[in-house]
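quick one: copper (II) ion bound model?
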Amino acid sequence: MRLGDRWGSGGTALPPSLNVRMTLTALLAVLMLAGLGQPVLAEQPEPWQMGMQPAATPLAEQLQWFHTFLLYIITGIVIFVFVLIGYVLLRFNERANPKPSRTTHNTFLEIAWTVVPILILLVIAIPSFRLLYAQYAFPKPDLTIKAIGSQWYWTYEYPDHDDLTFDAVMVEDNQLKPGQPRLLATDNDVVVPVNKNVHVLVTASDVIHSWAVPAFGLKSDAVPGRVQRTWFRAERTGTFYGQCSELCGRRHAFMPIAVRVVSQAEFEQWLAQAKETFASGSSRASEVARLER
Ligand SMILES: [Cu+2]
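yep, here:
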């Protein structure tokens, strides 16, 4: 049976190749339209995304560079090994090479296959250590925030600003406002100024959680009874999303992280308002009640 008969309309069947091409084009158009229908949200995963989220901090940039660099190296190694195996299969099989040589040692080859991998490891180790040190070389903080993981929300404290404290709970599907991404938006965002060094003290109140924001290149375990430190310097404004990244219980997938990076002036404005809003601690009690549903 011809493809054209199956897909076309009876007697006016198109040549099979054309018909297949049209179907593929239509499929592609539907996919593109589906893509266009989505609101444009830059700082979060997108449908069909292949690479990483665009970096918003120098550390994330460095991380992503390292990732790509390693990808080139491992691709080269895989191709080399593949070609080598292919060559051996073809050149030295029983038919092509009925009388195998009895050679056992080759000084040059043995030195080469020891030295070359060492050089490759060195080339990887140098940027790897540089990145590791950069992550732990804390610049002088302009702002310190504390992120405390609890089942299943995050509490944020601003110890530099009268111990401002509030909870950030995921916005449920039926309460999403336009533009708020599902499973990522929180009722209260962490707000930080742009181009400032922000230290984050990460801990937990019950089980191990993990505070992670991919666009910042950050992931820090939140361990009860311990305070971990991490830092970021966001270089552009926007809302950046992350999720708890340590399996912490039933609602592990529903305790997202939303960080809003704003100008210094907007930050101060938010701070003044937040101090009033959260002064009574009312946000906290209501959230606990919500979680106990
Ligand atoms: Cu968690």
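The first strand starts at residue 143 and ends at 150.
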